[in-house]
Amino acid sequence: MHSMSSSTRPRSLSGIQPTAESFHLGNYLGAVRQWVGLQEDHDAFYFIADLHALTVQPDPAQLRARVHRSAAQLLAAGVDPERSALFCQSHVPEHTQLAWVFNCLTGFGEAGRMTQFKDKSAKAGADKASVGLFTYPILQAADILLYNPHHVPVGEDQRQHLELSRNLAQRFNHHYGETFRQPEAYIVKGTAKIADLQDPTAKMSKSASSPNGIVDLLDDPKKAAKKIRSAVTDSGDTIRYDPEGQPGIANLLTLFATVAGTTVDDVVAQFEGQQYGHLKVALADLVADLVSGFGERTRAYLDDPAELDRVLAAGAARAREVAAPVVVDVYDKVGLVRGV
Ligand code: ATP
Ligand code: MG
Predict the structure, then answer these.
(1) Alpha-carbon torsion (241, 246, 251, 256), positive or negative
(2) pTM, whole model, 2 decimals?
(3) In which residues is L-tryptophan bound (predicted)?
């Protein structure tokens, strides 16, 4: 791969969990689109977070299939493996090796304050939530800090985890000497929290949304359009952008502006004086087009699983070049004796 190793460009890094058959509009607009944009002027590292997916005990065959589906979708979204290292988290063992060191630097109470853990464990039931789910933000800190990225493109729900990563970087540096960069969350206002179509106060989520609340990128276009048309909207009938008072309409306006490549103000102006239904029908068409092209591209990549494996292997090799020396350095610094 060309020029990446000697580059002085800033780095970007992010991951996505293979926790569903498809990514959804929130994943795409909130995160993956930014991955694609940043690869233009960053050295980019993007991974499929299969170890994170294990925290909710997926069926093994299903998990395996979803890793390929994830790789195909990331390529379909525009992640370019010539420019970005695209890999599978479990193929780079340095992630778990560094995670242990961070586990030992994280306070129990500190980990307990992570709101995603509270939400997800409350849903699973306290007895069913795994210790892996509890420590997953710490593995995530390792995922990130291994690559010393400048920018981490994520949705709003990851802000707290990013803050933990920054704290762990600082703590490690304080105890053991300057080692890690404190990464910046790259969160794009507007699309950072795409809402569930049926419950516009909640985020659209692979694991928590109801089928009608979520537009999957691999949905049949007609089905996707129908979901948009039946989105829950607010009482009143004025199309204006008011995320507090009218979260349903605000979400549709955000989706429209982002998918059409325009601004919320323009969309509001375009639909001035019209009813909610007009906005929904027009957005339904846009979204149907988006998922139609996306689905076609993804299926083409899925037709060649050997090529997907090749891309992931090349990405992992590139990632390990960066990650391996970091773990050696960290293990030295914390006082582990090198094996012979
Ligand atoms: P899960 O429910 O399994 O946690 P998820 O939908 O939250 O799935 P993740 O794989 O955890 O998806 O997250 C991948 C990326 O997508 C992250 O950067 C996350 O912040 C972002 N993201 C997830 N949901 C949304 C959303 N509704 N709006 C904007 N960004 C989102
Ligand atoms: Mg999530």
Answers:
(1) negative
(2) 0.95
(3) 143
